[in-house]
């Protein structure tokens, strides 16, 4: 394992300590959990970005003429 440290002002430290005590965790456990949640959210965000960058493949449909007129609509020919 590796160690991560940070400096906090007195008020932030006391609030964090109070929060940890309320949740029944030591500060190290709470920090570890918080960092792991942040990493998971970060990885999910990267995955979502990859999905958005994938080119969209659109299916093309072909139009078929089933009736054709060669004399301005006087006579119709069925084409299949």
Summarize the structure.
With 80 residues, this protein is mainly alpha-helical.
How would the blueprint of this fold be written?
Layout (H helix, E strand, L loop, with lengths): L9 H14 L3 H27 L13 E3 L6 E3 L2
Antiparallel strand pairs: 1-2
Explain this structure to me?
This protein has 80 residues and is mainly alpha-helical. It contains 2 helices and 2 strands. It has helices at 10-23, 27-53; strands spanning 67-69, 76-78. It is rod-shaped and about 90 Å long. 0% of the residues are buried.
Order of helices and strands: HHEE
Strand order of the largest sheet: 1-2
Give the number of DSSP strands. 2
Mean pLDDT equals: 86
What attributes does this structure have?
51% helix, 2 strands, 80 residues
């Amino acid at each position: 394992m590796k160690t991560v440290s940070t400096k906090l002002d007195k008020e932030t430290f006391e609030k964090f300590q109070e929060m940890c005590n309320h949740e029944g965790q030591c500060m190290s456990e709470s920090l570890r959990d918080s960092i792991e949640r942040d990493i998971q959210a970060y990885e999910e965000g990267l995955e979502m970005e990859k999905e958005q960058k994938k080119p969209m493949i659109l299916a093309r449909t072909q139009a078929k003429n089933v009736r054709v007129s060669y004399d301005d609509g006087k006579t119709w020919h069925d084409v299949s």
